[in-house]
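Handover notes (outgoing to incoming on-call)

Open items:
1. Death domain-containing protein: sequence verified, structure written out, both below. Nothing else pending on this one.
2. Nothing else urgent.
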Amino acid sequence: MIKPHKTHRQQKQEQIKERLGEVGVCRIRRTEENDGISETLGCGFLVRNFAIVPGFPYPRCLISSDKIFPVECNIDKYYLDFKKVDPNALKTIKLKDITKADKVSRNYGLVVIQIDPSEKCKKGDSLFDRLFDVTNEELTPKENDLRCLYVDDAGDSQFSVKSLKLGEPLQSQYVLAEENESPYKSFTEVTRRGDRKPYGAAIVKNDGGGLIIAGALTFSDDDTKTVQPVFFPLPAQGSVSQWNNPSEEGQPLRHTPLVAVATLEQEAVDGLVKSGKIPKDNLPYLAWDIGNEGSWKNFGRCLNLSEGELKCFGSDHGGEYERWYCMLKAWRERDGAYVTLANTLKKHNRTDLFEQYCLEGSDPPTKGPRQPPTDLNLKKLRISEEDHRDISRRVASKRRRLGRALGLGDENLEAIMEDNANDTNEQSFKILQKWMQSNGAKATYDVLAQALYDRTVMLDDVVEDYCVI
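Death domain-containing protein structure tokens:
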């Protein structure tokens, strides 16, 4: 049987995956612009779907130590060096090309930096083939296959990625070990040989299908600088882990964190959750996306709306979608904070919507309607009176949604509803009429087609029947 041909890109991806332990750990340097001197600070590694806040994984992150990225650091001066599949070549990335200063989160002695493709480092770049998967299971004292991958520096043009075994704790103290050497208990002991840079080392284990990340290496903040690993997944929000008794078999082992896990409110300051209020033009799409998520009343209660406020959205609000929209609109008027929405989405297990709407740097799916097929030859004429009447009847069931997609404000829509109560077709006619009057010669079939294709409206058949030449 003939095997399918693999492209050069596919072959390279396979090679990176096979050697991820070597090419997935990076050397982190800081360069001073005035003298051009480069200093190797430590190491780090890239992961996918890492939960900075438990329950909300971010697609791509760089994980390292807060000793490498102190609070006042300038990320514009930082560089990441990765070994290529060719062992004699390096891949260098300017950190500022894949992240921003407000995307840095700190906890447990670690720094987690959200990274994204950019114009200078596009989505197809091999950098994004170097992402490790992160374990989702607890560690136990019986595990003895954990290794720390760290950088041993060798100058500007080269470095090595080496491995130390992470040993079981002795008297509540983890150790690092290598053959023919006494166990290392501290940063000082680890760095006696070569030019080792262990801060930010990746703790990995082999799950049978390759290496996955089990944690990251730090050292205590006191003078002893003892070995202090951080295991993933991180503890649940608000909890503080303590050492467990090593003699108790089966108990998960975690170090006592230096600080408690941040709440979402704290994370908003650190740049995970957007600050301020959600824009009004996000609401129609958020209502559409979350409208199949159980009861809008329960969701409204989680947003701290009162029972009296929820009673206002009864049977006269045009169906379930409209009740979702009106509930979200009322919430925005009295609160509307991203952090409130983020917490509520977490309670309803909607990580996807958290990432799309609340995550700093995200691009909510609201920037425009679905586009009509390019092979449609749309009319660019002003809508005729006859078509105005016919179209208004065809769109009556989604008249409010279409009005919003056409840019009419809620005040205009509600005034039309009240003036033409109990007459659905007339309401629909007046909505189109208001739009046509407001836009004059620009109220054309092709513009209407864009709104009809909006994902909250989706009346494609009306486009085909009236807007196509």
